[in-house]
Design brief:
Helix content of chain B: 40-55%
Structural class of chain B: mainly alpha
InterPro entries (chain A): DRC1/2_N, DRC1/DRC2, DRC1_C
Subunit structure (chain A): Component of the nexin-dynein regulatory complex (N-DRC). Interacts with CCDC65/DRC2, DRC3, GAS8/DRC4 and TCTE1/DRC5.
Number of strands of chain A: 0
GO cellular component, one term (chain A): axonemal dynein complex
Pfam family, one (chain A): NYD-SP28
Keywords (chain A): Cell projection, Cilium, Coiled coil, Flagellum
Oligomer: heterodimer
Shape of chain A: elongated
Largest interface: A-B, 19 and 19 residues
Chain lengths: ~650, ~500
């Protein structure tokens, strides 16, 4: 390949050189023509210059001559003598002839020159044609040469290519043959193996064929047998078919009739259906109407219900309020009466003492009775059920949330003995949330539509019933248990105060009460009261509950039947109390007093008579004095004198 | 058939059925002669079939067919196809009813192959684009055809040469100008170059040349000026929408010994009309007007019309009478156009004209080639040009052959050679460079790496220095060849020179 490139490069160089030489050879003619042209131009210029000079000289001389001649014409005009004129004319003629000859000479010269130029032109033409011929010759030669060399070059390149191609061909052929041989050997191998395989397959095929034949025969026999059996069966089937056909025909007849009947029935049924449809539609419309009605009713009733519930609540509130008021009034009346009674009793005692000491002269000791020390109504604190407390708690908290005036409610709610309402509530809520498993699923489904607080209430009820918490104490126990648990299990520094308060419940409750009373259910309370339930982790609730239940179960009595009785004041002891009040003075003393009374009455009677008498005496005395005074007056009056008979004399007379 | 027989025939007669089938086979081949005999039961079915068969093959056809089959000429394939017939008809009547565009490509090709090249151009010009047809037209008309000179298109070549022929033989006021103008709509899309190397003068009355005698026709020409006008190209060129090259010679060829000066007259009217023509032709790229006695005034008229021409690239006014003023006008044109090639060979440009050209060249960026062969610029002009080349960065070819240059120009040129890197070809042949000038040029050459051609023939340079310069040129050529490994770069200058040689 390289040698080939070298060869081509060499060839190219050679060709370029050849071309250059050739063009030079060809252009040489042009260059030669150019230089000839230049020489010609120079010569031409020279000749032209000479010619012009010559012409100018000629013009000058001929002008001179002409001037001379014209001068002579002037001269001739003056000539008078014909001879002279003739001579002069002759000389003029000669001069003119000389001038013309000169001109003619010049013209002939120029014409000669022109002729030579023409010849030159012809020669030039010839020369040019010769040049062109030469040029053509050279070009042709050049073309031939170049062609030849190009051909040679081409052939050499072709040869080189040929050689290379041949080499490639031989090498490829060798390769090809080698490959072909290998291929043939492989082919042969394949052929042999194939023949062997074919034989094998043939054997197998034969075997297979024999086996197939046998199988075929056996199958054939079997199938023929089968056919026979089947034919028998077919016969049987045919018989049965006949039978069945008849039966079926009969059935068909029957069915036809039935069909007819059924058609009749169908039509009837259809009619009935249509009728029923009508009825159904009517009923539907009625039904819808009723539904609408009932819905309306339901709505109105629910609204009524809601209204009633609110009314009821209000009523309850009012009732509670009135109950409170009643209580208060009752207490006041009680106190008033008691005071009155006590006054009376003390009076009686005073009387008794005076009687004893003054009248009877007996030593007197003041009697000591329990009821004397009693102040206020005798109240037996009945144990309330847990649910009631719950309700109260919940309602209370609700009210706290909504209303501001809760001070009254708090005063009457003595529930939070040891813990605040909030804490309790929170604990209960927590309990409710965490121990939902204690509630029956049915209940839950029922509870869903209810209000939140009610829901809680019912849930807690269920939970407590499950846990066995019934009474108020149990509830408090539970709450305390929770708190204690929390205290034990999370003694954080921040909650030391709450711990302390939990240890000293009485103080704490007092404190809390004060606080609650002072802060009218406001938010500061929330701040001050430690929000303990948040500290009880929801996961701990179950543990606490378990522990609580274990602890509670031991001292538990068999569960008493839960009675939901409204708290009614027990008035049984009141009468006894009052009775006792009434009988503070024993019958013996009374008897004594009666006897004393009768004696003293008698004494009194005597005294009163005496007093009457005294009074009578006094009045009589007074009358007497008055009368005396009157008499005096009368006596002293001037009328007496005027009278014929002076009274005084009369008087004196009777008196005398 | 056999199965039917088997069902009809009893199982015992298997041999008979065999026989019957064999006869059946025979009957089908040999006709119905034996079919009726052996089987009376079949005729109801067989006869119609065998009869129909016999109609086409047997009876009269049987023998005939054998004979026809042996006749080698009787064949269905011999009958020409309908398409062939149609094509022949179309070819025959093409002149009256040219159908070509509607045909399928294969049929089109056939039609084109069979069309006669003598068909009128009015029919073929705008209809046929096929090169092979036009090739036939060309080869039929002209024995020598260089299709490469016509852009490789036979059609273009045909029309260009046809038009050139018409123009060459047009005689004003005797030939009908409609002859050429009629051709215009046919050839306007195909003619790109117009190369007319003769314009005939108007026919003269027989006594006129006698009376004119063989004197210089200057005075006579002025008198007869309107009569010696040549064909006016205006209309034609305006119609040729793709014309790019215009190559004109106002003269008569092959006059031989019938030479007369007024055969070679380029009148002012001709000049003005030509100027207007080339000004109007905006597609023109190459304009050549050679051997037409263009003097300064005419050159100025022409060049003025070419100022700011949008497309012109080459101007050739060689072999005329252009003097310094014309050269000055050309110099102006250099700065007012995108001229790439300027040829003023064999004119009468002297030092002044060369100086003005040099001035324009010094800052020109378009001109590639300048030819001032056979002028007389002498050393003054040569030095001016050499100075211009020191700043010019565009010119590649410079021809100063036969300009009476001598040593001073050579010294300046040697400096240019050391500096300039664009020049590739310089021609200083037929000057008087002298021995010292040759040495200086050799010195300049030693620093140059771009020059490829340097012609110093017949310029009095010592052979030794010429040889050394040739060596340096060889080295430069080698370097250039390695720079562009395309061998055609050698051929191109030579082939470009080719057409110039016969002209000189």
């Amino acid at each position: 390949m390289d040698c080939q490139i070298d060869a081509t490069l060499k060839g190219l160089k050679k060709l370029a050189k050849l071309l250059l030489c050739g063009t030079e050879l060809v252009t040489n003619i042009q260059v030669a023509a150019d230089i000839r042209e230049i020489h010609r131009r120079v010569e031409e210029g020279e000749i032209r210059r000479q010619r012009l000079e010559k012409l100018e000289n000629e013009v000058k001389t001929s002008q001179d001559k002409f001037d001379e001649i014209t001068m002579k014409w002037e001269e001739g005009k003056r000539k008078r003598i014909p001879q002279d004129l003739w001579d002069m004319l002759n000389t003029q003629q000669v001069h003119c002839a000389g001038l013309i000859e000169d001109k003619n000479k010049l013209i002939s010269e120029l014409q000669q020159e022109l002729k030579t130029k023409d010849d030159q032109y012809v020669k030039d033409l010839k020369k040019q044609s010769d040049d062109i011929c030469l040029l053509l010759e050279r070009m042709e030669e050049q073309v031939k040469n170049v062609m030849k060399t190009f051909r040679q070059e081409l052939s050499s390149i072709e040869k080189a290519f040929e050689v290379e191609r041949r080499e490639l061909l031989t090498s490829n052929k060798k390769k090809w043959e080698r490959a072909l041989q290998a291929h043939n050997a492989k082919e042969l191998e394949y052929l042999l193996s194939r023949i062997k395989k074919v034989e094998d397959y043939e054997k197998q095929l034969n075997k297979q064929r024999v086996w197939d034949c046998e199988e075929y025969n056996t199958i054939k026999i079997k199938l023929e047998q089968d056919v026979q059996i089947l034919e028998q069966q077919l016969q049987q089937m045919k018989a049965t078919y006949q039978l069945n056909q008849e039966k079926l025909e009969y059935n068909f007849q029957v069915l036809k009739k039935r069909d007819e009947e059924s058609v009749v029935i169908k039509s009837q049924q259809k009619r009935k259906i249509s009728r029923l449809h009508d009825i159904l539609n009517n009923l539907r419309s009625k039904y819808t109407k009723q539904i609408r009605q009932f819905q309306e009713e339901n709505q109105s009733l629910t609204s009524d219900y809601i209204r009633l519930v609110t009314q009821f609540k209000e009523l309850q509130k009012a009732m509670r309020h009135f109950a409170l008021l009643d209580d208060k009034r009752f207490r006041e009346i009680w106190l008033m009466n008691e005071e009155e009674a006590k006054d009376l009793i003390s009076k009686a005692f005073d009387v008794d003492r005076i009687i004893h000491t003054q009248h009877l002269g007996l030593p007197w000791t003041a009697p000591d009775f329990w009821f004397l020390r009693n102040v206020g109504p005798i109240s037996q604190q009945q144990q309330r059920s847990a649910t009631q407390i719950l309700e109260e708690v919940l309602i209370q908290t609700e009210e706290e949330g909504t209303e501001e005036a809760t001070s009254e409610a708090e005063s009457y709610l003595d529930l939070p003995k040891q813990v605040s309402m909030k804490t309790t509530r929170k604990i209960l809520m927590l309990l409710c949330d965490e121990s939902g498993f204690l509630i029956e699923s049915k209940l839950l489904s029922l509870l869903r539509p209810l209000e939140k607080s009610e829901c809680y209430l019912l849930k807690l009820d269920a939970i407590f019933s499950a846990l066995g918490i019934e009474s108020e104490d149990d509830l408090y126990k539970l709450v305390n248990f929770f708190l204690k648990y929390r205290v034990h299990h999370s003694p954080s520094s921040q909650e030391q105060t709450s711990l302390m308060s939990a240890l000293d419940p009485g103080e704490q409750t007092d404190l809390e009460r004060q606080k609650e009373e002072s802060l009218v259910g406001g938010e500061p309370e929330e701040k001050e009261v430690p929000p303990s339930p948040t500290l009880i982790h929801p996961n701990d609730v179950l543990k606490i509950l378990e522990a609580f239940v274990m602890g509670l179960r031991k001292p538990r009595d068999p569960p008493a039947p839960v009675k939901v009785v409204k708290y009614v004041r027990d008035t049984s002891k009141d009468s006894a109390y009052w009775e006792a009040m009434a009988t503070v003075i024993p019958y013996a003393t009374q008897n004594l007093w009666d006897a004393l009374y009768t004696a003293l009455e008698k004494y009194h009677f005597v005294l009163t008579q005496r007093a009457k008498l005294l009074i009578e005496n006094n009045s009589l005395e007074k009358q007497n004095t008055e009368l005396q005074m009157l008499l005096q007056q009368y006596l002293d009056s001037k009328i007496n004198s005027e009278l014929h008979v002076p009274p005084t004399q009369v008087l004196r007379a009777p008196t005398k | 058939m056999q199965s039917m027989q088997a069902t009809v025939a009893t199982p015992t007669s298997s041999a008979l059925s065999q026989f019957s089938t064999s006869t059946q086979d025979k009957s089908s081949t040999a006709g119905q002669t034996s079919s009726t005999g052996p089987q009376p039961s079949r005729p109801s079915i067989i006869p119609p079939r065998s009869k129909s068969k016999g109609w086409s093959t047997g009876a009269s056809g049987g023998r005939m067919r054998r004979i026809i089959a042996e006749d080698p000429e009787w064949s269905l394939a011999i009958v020409p196809l309908l398409t062939e017939l149609c094509i022949q008809h179309i070819v025959k009547n093409f002149q009256n009813n040219p159908i070509l565009k509607q045909l399928l490509p294969e049929h089109k090709q056939k039609v084109l192959d069979h069309l006669s090249p003598d068909l009128p151009l009015a029919v073929t010009a705008n209809l046929i684009d096929d090169e092979s047809y036009w090739r036939r037209c060309c080869t039929q008309r002209w024995p020598v055809c260089h299709v490469a000179k016509h852009g490789g298109s036979w059609k273009r070549m045909f029309f260009e040469r046809h038009l050139e022929n018409l123009l060459k033989h047009f005689i004003p006021s005797t030939t009908d100008p409609a002859l050429i103008l009629d051709l215009l709509p046919l050839c306007r899309n195909y003619v790109r170059r117009l190369r007319v190397d003769q314009f005939l003068p108007p026919m003269k009355l027989p006594p006129r040349p006698r009376s004119g005698e063989l004197s210089d026709s200057g005075s006579e020409a002025e008198v007869e000026e309107p009569a010696t006008d040549h064909y006016q190209l205006e209309d034609l060129v305006a119609g040729l929408s793709h014309l790019e090259e215009l190559d004109l010679v106002y003269g008569v060829k092959d006059c031989g010994m019938n030479f007369e000066w007024n055969l070679f007259l380029f009148t002012y009217r001709d000049c003005h009309s030509l100027a207007a023509t080339i000004k109007a032709c905006h597609t023109l790229k190459i304009f050549r007007l050679t051997r037409s006695k263009v003097d300064d005034d005419k050159a100025r008229i022409l060049i003025r019309s070419l100022l700011d021409h949008p497309a012109l690239e080459e101007l050739d006014l060689s072999h005329n009478l252009v003097g310094d003023r014309g050269a000055r006008a050309a110099a102006k044109l250099l700065s007012h156009s995108r001229l790439r090639v300027l040829n003023l060979a064999n004119n009468q440009v002297r030092a002044l004209g060369a100086q003005s050209l040099a001035h324009a060249l010094a800052h020109n960026t378009n001109l590639i080639s300048l030819n001032l062969r056979l002028n007389c610029i002498e050393d003054e002009g040569g030095q001016a040009l050499a100075h211009a080349l020191q700043t010019n960065r565009c010119l590649t070819t410079l021809h100063l052959g036969g300009n009476e240059l001598s040593e001073p120009t050579a010294t300046l040129l040697s400096q240019v050679l050391a500096v300039n890197t664009t020049l590739t070809s310089i021609n200083l042949s037929c000057n008087h460079i002298g021995l010292d000038g040759g040495k200086q040029l050799l010195e300049g050459m030693s620093d140059n790496r771009t020059l490829l051609e340097f012609d110093l023939r017949l310029s009095d340079v010592a052979q030794e220095s010429e040889y050394l310069i040739g060596q340096a040129l060889c080295a430069n050529r080698e370097a250039a060849r390695q720079r562009a490994p395309n061998p055609s770069c050698f051929m191109s200058p030579i082939t470009a020179k080719g057409p110039e040689n016969p002209a000189g």
